[in-house]
Specification:
single chain, 319 residues, mainly alpha
């Protein structure tokens, strides 16, 4: 049988009494105890409800009804304010509601600011915010976000997925520097590290390297990279292998068992097509700038016309 210390000892101990608890404190202690015990049981249902609310928002977003999608995300935020996906989705839908990839919604940036206050190592939020800041010309802040994302990615345990995340972060930082037209030596080193360690160099990295070389005045090298980037992008869209994550990150995510959204829903496929057109427009605009620098006026004019055909404005907001 189990024994108490007093029963097993060779001498008698005085009976220990718990300290007296004031009567007013007893209900408070009871509530704290219940909160600790029931916390996990409470959190999971509210997280699940918030996910359902986001799923309904996703349905509205797929229909193009972004106000309804944002309303569902706001409801999910009330349900589970500590679920990171909520603020990420609301930021995405707020910016999508503009209907213009060359603009940034200030409220979307505020959502990402709030998320990063709560979770400063969320690389998805850092890179999304950097992209929006870049769009509105806040290049210093965009570069800083990309630097932070790279530090977080490098600090993660080594794996195929995390190596791909490092390459993705390097590409983002290098491109952000090129857009800002600053620290071009560092930018070239970053994109060279990314390409050197990548199993395949796709249009995303090729475009970044081309734009850096253009900024450095290396026009022939820039033009060669840009031709290769557009050819790769066009090929991947034609055979349906394009993924907006760029290069090998999507493949690494699949290799690590990370769930990717499928585009079986025709509405989502249509939205993806629109994003593809924007990315194509960016590449053609970059090539137009490089061709202009190479004094290829006819080719530059044709690329500018292609940008317009793709539904974009050929100006520096096209990033």
């Amino acid at each position: 049988m189990a024994t108490t210390p007093a029963q097993s000892a060779d001498f008698d101990l005085p009976e220990l009494q718990p300290p007296a608890v004031p009567a007013w404190l007893t209900p408070t202690l009871t509530l704290i105890t219940c909160a600790i015990a029931l916390g996990p049981l409470y959190n999971e249902p509210r997280f699940e409800l918030a996910r359902w609310q986001l799923a309904i928002g996703g349905h509205h977003a797929a229909e193009g009804d972004y106000p309804a999608a944002i309303e569902q995300a706001s409801a999910a935020l009330e349900t589970a304010p500590d679920l990171p996906a909520v603020l990420l989705h609301r930021a995405l839908w707020r910016n999508s509601a503009l209907g213009d990839y060359q603009s940034a919604d200030p409220q979307a940036i505020e959502d990402l600011n709030l998320l990063l206050l709560r979770n400063p190592k969320n690389t998805d939020a850092l890179q999304r915010r950097a992209s929006l800041l870049q769009t509105i010309g806040e290049h210093e802040r965009a570069i800083d976000d990309h630097r932070r994302a790279l530090r977080v990615a490098r600090a993660r345990p080594d794996s195929q997925l995390n190596r791909a995340r490092v390459r993705f972060a390097l590409n983002g930082l290098a491109y952000s520097r090129a857009v800002a037209n600053r620290d071009l030596d560092e930018a070239l080193q970053e994109i060279q590290e990314a390409t050197r360690n990548s199993p395949s160099v796709g249009f995303g990295m090729l475009d970044t390297r081309a734009f850096i070389r253009y900024r450095r005045g290396e026009i022939e090298l820039a033009l060669a990279d840009m031709h290769a980037a557009i050819a790769d992008m066009d090929d991947k869209i034609e055979i349906g292998l394009y993924d907006k994550r760029g290069d090998d990150l999507a493949a690494a995510m699949k290799g690590e068992g990370v769930r990717l959204e499928l585009l079986a829903d025709e509405r989502l496929a249509a939205q993806e097509t629109k994003r593809n057109l924007h990315t194509q427009a960016v590449l053609y605009y970059h090539r137009a700038l490089i061709r202009r620098a190479a004094r290829q006026a006819r080719g530059a004019k044709a690329d500018i016309e292609r940008v317009r055909q793709l539904g974009a404005r050929p100006d520096d907001s096209l990033q």
